[in-house]
Design brief:
- By secondary structure, this protein is of the alpha/beta class.
- The protein has one domain: 4-Layer Sandwich (Purple Acid Phosphatase, chain A, domain 2).
- Helices cover 28% and strands 18% of the residues.
- The strands form two sheets. The protein has a five-stranded mixed β-sheet with strand order 4-3-2-1-9. Strands 5-6-7-8 form a four-stranded mixed β-sheet, with no helix packed on it.
- The protein is globular.
- InterPro entries: Metallo-depent_PP-like.
């Protein structure tokens, strides 16, 4: 059975993100290559990946080349830096599905780029990106930004286990 993964905020081709978020890369080329290798080290060709936005700052051809190198069935939920391009642009570069809006997954995860308000009485965990190295306290938000997870996507099971552990702790 295929695994399902979540990740966000790769910012492929964005030179300044290295300084903004203290990423451990000497240049944008190294950053791009390490992030592609990190993705493929956990995601298999039959797996599904939800990318929660801010994927690439590169042109269409360069973005297409990166998407083609990444394993898995890729679903993009548009982030603030992705919205300057149309849904069809993202499909053309190789994403299998593109959503302009948040998605509810398995009646448990509320997937969005930016953190969303989740009432403590709601049954959801908001898996989100956007805030990079920051984190919200509590059990209702899970920051999937690459900076927190060694630039690797996390599986549904990993996130669910972390959420359950935080509720018990």
């Amino acid at each position: 059975m295929a695994n399902v993964f979540f990740t966000s905020d790769h910012h492929f081709g964005h030179k300044h993100i290295i300084d903004f978020e203290s990423r451990p890369f000497s240049d944008v080329e190294q950053m791009n290559e390490v992030m592609i290798e990190s993705w493929n080290s956990v995601v298999g060709k039959d797996d599904k990946v939800f990318h929660l936005g801010d994927f690439s700052f590169l042109n269409k051809e360069e973005t297409r080349n990166i998407v083609a190198r990444l394993q898995g069935y890729k679903i993009l939920i548009l982030g603030n830096h992705d919205r300057g391009r149309t849904r069809s642009w993202w499909m053309d570069v190789g994403f299998d599905e593109v959503s302009e809006y948040a998605v509810i997954y398995k009646d448990f995860f509320f997937l969005s780029h930016e953190p969303m308000y989740v009432n403590k009485h709601m049954p959801y965990v908001n898996v989100h990106g956007h805030i990079h190295n920051q984190k919200y306290e509590g059990n209702h938000h899970f920051n999937i930004c690459v900076e927190h997870w060694d630039y690797k996507p996390l599986s549904f099971e990993q996130i669910r286990a972390a959420v359950v552990a935080s509720e018990e702790g």
